[in-house]
Specification:
By secondary structure, the protein is of the alpha+beta class. The protein folds into 4 domains: about 300 residues, 2-Layer Sandwich (Nucleotidyltransferase, domain 5), CATH 3.30.420; about 240 residues, no CATH class; about 90 residues, Beta Complex (paz domain), CATH 2.170.260.10; about 130 residues, Rossmann fold (3-Layer(aba) Sandwich). The protein is built from 21 helices and 44 strands. The strands form 9 sheets. Strands 40-2-23-41-42-43-39-38-33-34-35-44 form a 12-stranded mixed β-sheet, with helices on both faces. Strands 3, 9, 10, 11, 12, 13, 21 and 22 form an 8-stranded antiparallel β-sheet that branches. The longest helix is centred in the C-terminal third of the chain and has 19 residues. The N terminus is likely disordered. Pfam families: ArgoL1 (PF08699), ArgoL2 (PF16488), ArgoMid (PF16487), ArgoN (PF16486), PAZ (PF02170), Piwi (PF02171). This is Protein argonaute 1B-like isoform X4.
């Protein structure tokens, strides 16, 4: 919470001095609970002609009595009555007829350069494409079986019944040909052997013999490539991308890799594409590649990128279980926890039996028996005679079961259970592992996937050559030709912005070099005050003396950085076991409040020292501090506490602490000097939003939405946040705007946008006339739905504050989960790369590989650290503010230098980054109660945590399933960037 400080708060040269609200930079002291629509407030005819400039000052905590002078309803009335000259109006509606903004031209700012992109030009075929519907009976859901059926059909009938055509098949319901088949409808009878259909079916008896299928192929439509040609040339007047034509070409180019490799979505993996690496607990990596055909300015391009993913090792099941549990399973009986872990890991896994010689029948594991193998019996005749599994295997196969204390694997279905001892089963190769990896496995996988840019570029080129698209019989059949060379793309390197620090430091501003700078000789622009703090040591490997010295060093670094930080804690350091986290936190907080409450003070910060491998401790600590105690915390790992030469670490922690207690670290000089186009001229609020989804297998967990909004115009550095739970997998943010009926029949409005707009007004005494919204986590297929739902919610929130209040909106999707990579044109030219071998920060591309007509660009705003940098992709879905390419690209790049947690530019724009951090943090609030008990709600869920409503689905449910609300954030936590 910012307040007037002593001596350090001089306004900067050139900045107009103006009134500064005491609550500047904070979010509301009380949660806004909604307002009745139809309030009588209106804009008055007079008002300031120029918004006041900010005063730079030392951040100080507000006294408890402050901030209570204005209730939220009074702020809403003031919001309605506030008069602003030149009010902009947005009256555009969103309808299905609208198009996304067209590119306003190519940017010219920055130094020109050339980069290579992992896009390969694809020549549009000149063929007459036909689509046919495919029906296979009996119906099989698995694509590999369908593909096996179609391969057999083509092998048998291509030169006769199919007229020599080589069709491309999507594995489901559609077949495509380059020219018509000699029939409009025809049926075929196909027989597959067990090995051909993939074996192991749906969990049944493991095959044996043959399977018969009836295939009906029926003409459906002709595929119009002319529309695609017009679209690529920018001459198509229709709103939608001709996805049908692009999909056909994508299916054609996937046909051969699908037969050669293991297809997983748009990826292809094989044990032969690179060295395997163990991930531990029975998992290993397969090397593979991503492939997708995309419409771009240069025409169609084939996007190829390298990938590694987790697969189950093809081990004997006994060996897999031994690795999974990390112990000798024959030494002692399994515990209940062991059984649960084995069952989770093996359910759905395909295995083959090894006790029948060459007859390797295949099965899919359904579960484990509750009894040990030696206790299992089954009926052998109608008279109820039973035989033990051990006896059966010895008599029938001459196989003596050794691990009789282990459970058997259950295969088959509920009606006819089959029991297989683990030691006669082996896991089949090539099964992707979809469940959640542990931290060690994630670290090992990242080490495998992390490639130097030059190595990644080489592997991509080798993959293209290995796939030999020029010899691909399907590509030739359809007339598709792929260039073997990476695309050369014109790019520009945007200049880094100058950053302002406090005048009391020896260096008052800095110009970052290659995306980096440091805090040496600098002080934060607004230093927070921490007068009352405490420390708890949860690490057995850190002695109290070491912990005490660390806290002293950290306090000293906070002071050096420009904070008003008390040198000593108010209570002696406390040591506690990780298992006692709740008790330790409550006791320490209670002891502190006994000392401080009589003085009208509060404990302001907790420093917690954690073990390096702390399991649930971190999340539990954050949940208790932020939703129970209202306490800001900073966690430090043992490895950092104990190491020597930790000045850089301490400096970074000091930056985090400063913003957590209400300070600001740096601001853009251009923001202070009012030189930011379409930001400095009118009060502007910048939003960031993200939705995170649970891991696969966590179907009972909700998705978490987070929205942040800037609170300190014109600097746009400090952000407020709201988080909420919503239906599992739901991508649309459900609580941007809410309406409820009150007891008198009126309508009460609320929601994230309204609350954040009000908090902006409280902090700045300005009504936002421009909204810039950076939305993370949206795939291309969800663009229109997200735009319609979320922009409509923004407009309703504005309208609920004041009739005809319609600030201009620019809505930009931020994408990181794409597969475009940019490489230096000459890796030997050290002027064109950073120390990691990546392209320079600030590199922007808006030509050749971008959308044919729409407003998008790739921006690599950060310096590489390890591996190949991934540029962020920004796609504008709505632009009522009329940004030029240079204006939006420069704004986005400059904001990437204002990230609070480090002295580096970051890879995505900070408001989107903060939203992701907040959503990730909020998931910890769920972990304490995973049961289905407790109240559910579709309404407000408490202060700071919005009401409930990833892979997400964009369709807004008509009636969302009730979701348990998140615990409410405490008021003093809401006011600051606690998630940093």
């Amino acid at each position: 919470m910012a307040g007037r400080g002593s001596g350090q708060g001089r306004p900067q040269p050139g900045a107009e001095r103006g009134p500064t609200p005491q609550s500047r930079g904070s979010i509301p002291r009380r949660q806004f609970h909604g307002s009745r629509r139809g309030s009588s407030g209106r804009f008055s005819p007079a008002g300031p002609s120029q918004p006041p400039a900010p005063e730079l000052h030392q951040a100080m905590p507000m006294a408890p009595s402050q901030g209570s002078a204005f209730s939220i309803p009074s702020h809403e009335q003031q919001f309605q009555q506030l008069s602003i000259h030149g009010e902009a109006s947005s009256s555009h509606g969103i309808s299905k007829s609208m198009r996304f903004p067209q590119r306003p031209g190519i940017g010219i700012t920055g130094s020109k350069c050339v980069v290579k992109a992992n896009h390969f030009f694809a020549e549009l075929p000149n063929k007459d494409l036909h689509q046919y519907d495919v029906s296979i009976t009996p119906e099989v859901k698995r694509r590999e079986v369908n593909r096996a059926v179609m391969r057999q059909l083509v092998n048998l009938y291509r030169m006769s019944q199919l007229g020599g055509r080589l069709p491309a098949y999507d594995g489901q319901k559609s077949l495509f040909t380059a020219g018509p088949l000699p029939f409009s409808s025809k049926s075929f009878d196909i027989v597959l052997n067990e090995e051909e259909d993939g074996g192991g079916g749906g969990g049944g008896g493991g095959g044996g013999g043959q399977r018969a299928f009836k295939v009906v192929i029926k003409f459906a439509a002709r595929v119009n490539l002319h529309h695609l040609e017009l679209f690529l040339a920018g001459r198509l007047t229709e709103t939608a991308t001709p996805q049908d034509a692009i999909r056909v070409l994508d299916i054609v180019l996937r046909e051969l890799p699908s037969a050669r490799y293991l297809p997983v979505g748009r990826y292809f993996y094989s044990p032969d594409l690179g060295r395997r690496h163990s991930l531990g607990e029975g998992l290993e990596t397969f090397r593979g590649f991503y492939q997708s055909i995309r419409p771009t300015q240069m025409g169609l391009s084939l996007n190829i990128d390298m990938s590694s993913s987790a697969f189950i090792e093809p081990l004997p099941v006994i060996d897999f279980v031994t690795q999974l549990l990390n112990k000798d399973v024959s030494a002692r009986p399994l515990s209940d926890a062991d059984r649960v872990k084995i069952k989770k890991a093996l359910r759905g896994v395909k295995i083959e039996v090894t006790h029948r010689g060459n007859m390797r029948r295949k099965y899919r594991i359904a579960g484990l028996t509750t009894q040990a193998t030696r206790e299992l019996t089954f009926p052998v005749d109608d008279r109820g005679t039973r035989k033990s599994v051990v006896q059966y295997f010895q008599e029938t196969y001459g196989f003596n079961i050794q691990h009789t204390t282990l459970p058997c694997l259950q295969v088959g279905n509920q009606k006819r259970q089959n029991y297989l001892p683990m030691e006669v089963c082996k896991i089949i190769e090539g099964q992707k592992y979809y469940k959640k990896l542990n931290e060690k496995q994630i670290s090992a996988l990242l080490n495998v996937t992390c490639q130097h840019p030059q190595d990644r570029e080489r592997d991509i080129i080798q993959t293209v050559h290995h796939n030999a698209y020029h010899n691909d019989q399907y590509a030739r059949e359809f007339g598709i030709r792929i260039s073997p060379s990476l695309a050369l793309v014109d790019a520009r390197i945007l200049p880094a912005p100058r950053l302002k620090y406090h005048d009391t430091g020896r260096e008052r501003d800095v110009l970052p070099r290659v995306g980096q700078w440091n805090m040496m000789n600098k002080k934060v622009i607004n230093g927070g005050r921490v007068s009352y703090w405490a420390c708890i040591n949860f690490s057995r490997n850190v002695r109290n003396g070491v912990a005490h010295r660390f806290c002293q060093e950290l306090a000293q670094m906070c002071q050096i950085s420009g904070m008003d930080f008390a040198p000593d804690p108010i209570l002696p350091l406390l040591s506690s076991q990780p298992e006692q986290v709740e008790r330790a936190l409550n006791e320490r907080y209670s002891d502190a409040m006994k000392m401080l409450k009589p003085q009208g003070k509060e404990l302001e910060l907790l420093i917690a020292i954690l073990p390096d491998n702390n399991g649930p401790l971190y999340g539990e600590l954050k949940r208790i501090c932020e939703t129970d105690l209202g306490l800001i915390s900073q966690c430090c790992l043992t490895k950092h506490v104990c190491k020597t030469g930790k000045q850089q670490y301490l400096a970074n922690v000091a930056l985090k602490i400063n913003v957590k207690v209400g300070g600001r670290n740096t601001v853009l000089v251009d923001a202070l000097m009012r030189r930011m186009p379409l930001v400095s001229d009118l009060p502007t609020i910048i939003f960031g939003a993200d939705v995170t989804h649970p891991h696969p297998g966590e179907e009972s967990s909700p998705s978490i939405a987070a929205v942040v909004a800037s609170q300190d115009w014109p600097e746009v550095t400090k952000y407020a946040v709201l988080v909420g739970a919503q239906s599992h997998g739901q991508e649309l943010i459900q609580d941007l705007f809410t309406e409820q009926k009150d007891l008198r029949g009126g309508t009460i409005t609320g929601g994230m946008i309204k609350e954040l707009l009000l908090s902006f007004y409280q902090a700045t005494n300005q009504k936002p006339l421009r909204i810039i919204f950076y939305r993370d986590g949206v795939s291309e297929g969800q663009f229109f739905q997200v735009l319609v739902h979320e922009v409509q919610a923004i407009r309703k929130a504005c309208e609920s504050l004041e009739p005809n209040y319609q600030p201009l909106i620019t809505f930009v999707v931020v994408q990181k989960r794409h597969h475009t990579r940019l490489f230096a044109n000459n890796h030997a030219d050290h002027r064109s790369i950073d120390r990691s071998g990546n392209i320079l920060p600030g590199t922007v591309v808006d030509t050749k590989i971008c959308h044919p007509t729409e407003f998008d660009f790739y921006l690599c705003s950060h310096a590489g650290v390890k591996g190949t940098s991934r540029p962020a992709h920004y796609h504008v879905l709505l632009d009522e503010n009329g940004f030029t390419a240079d204006q939006l690209q420069s704004l986005t790049n400059n904001l990437c230098y204002t990230y609070a947690r480090c002295t580096r530019s970051v890879s995505i724009v900070p408001p989107a980054y903060y939203a992701h951090l907040a959503a990730f943090r909020a998931r910890f609030y769920l972990l304490a109660d995973t049961s289905d008990n407790g109240s559910t709600t579709n309404g407000a869920s408490g202060r700071g945590a919005r009401s409930p409503r990833g892979h997400g689905t964009a369709a807004a449910p008509a009636s969302p399933a009730p979701v348990k609300p998140l615990p409410a954030l405490k008021e003093n936590v809401k006011k600051v960037m606690f998630f940093c």
